[in-house]
Amino acid sequence: SMSAEQSGPDPAPADVRRIQKALSRVERDARKQPWAKERPWKTETHVWVEDGLAVVDLHDLSVTLGKKATERVIKLTINAGAVSFITGQGKNSIGPGQMKGAISSVLLKSVERNQDWGFRPDGPGRFILITDPEKAPRVAQTSLPGGFWILIALFFAALLFAFLNNAFGWF
Hints:
Radius of gyration: 20 Å
Helix content: 40-55%
Distance between the termini: 56 Å
Shape: globular
Order of helices and strands: HHHEEHEHEEHH
Low-confidence stretches: 1-7
Number of helices: 7
Strand order of the largest sheet: 1-2-3-5-4
Largest sheet: 5 strands, mixed
Structural class: alpha+beta
């Protein structure tokens, strides 16, 4: 198989166009939301390319429409090999945000149905769905940032220190 460098033009803009087309009904339904005047959800403002990936921003959608949008995107063939979903952290919600949990469960089900797919959080309030690890840009593939593992190592070092200090009065 060819590497991404050889496969010609960047596939993400074409992914964005196909996603925008697939989400036109979601955009239409979003106009009926109570906050549609202040915070309209439009495919032209909420779907874009970033780091070689199509990004679908679910901010300003109800949880129901967010799930519908995600399910529609999952049905498409993503030429870039991965797509990013922004759920946000629930700042516009009353109580804890529900979008994040709803979307992660939709993505989890899609990964269970498609053996070679994967998904992972990409910072707070964002997920990347990997549909083709061979084609996916590097941003989609790095599982966890190195800094994360350093924090884990420091945590266990502190735990060990506390244990040795308690058990043997060493330090």
